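Problem 12. The chain below contains 139 residues. Write out its predicted structure in token notation.
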Amino acid sequence: MSAVLEQVEYLYGIDSSVADDDRFYEPPRVVKFRITKKTPKRIYYVASEDWEATRRTGFVDRQRIEAAGEIYQRGRHWSAPDFHLYLAPPELEQAAKPDLSELRAAMAKVHPDRENGSHEAFIAARARYENARAKETSA
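Solution.
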């Protein structure tokens, strides 16, 4: 008995979890939405999220997304991962890694023992340096 493997297709969106508190920040990530059905006019996809209680099916205009490679969903909130959908996985911009030597130099420049240095400026500069160093070692 041979099994017929069905090819699974996806639409892609970007989850850019926005938070008011930096402690809960997560970098943007690509989210896949499984395509369930294609008709000449529409592409249907599973659009439910982890936080949504029910499974929701969405659809996009097939001609528009195939012509442009991407489409915006008017009926979705701008923060929803399926607000802006792509046919192919989108490239995410990578944030530039902070240069630790520059941050260390900035910290030394505002040290309280130096002219024009202050405790407040040094504490802020040290926090930026420590935060960048912690992110680099955890990556």
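Discussion. The longest strand covers residues 29-38. Students who got a different answer should revisit the alignment rule from Section 12.3.
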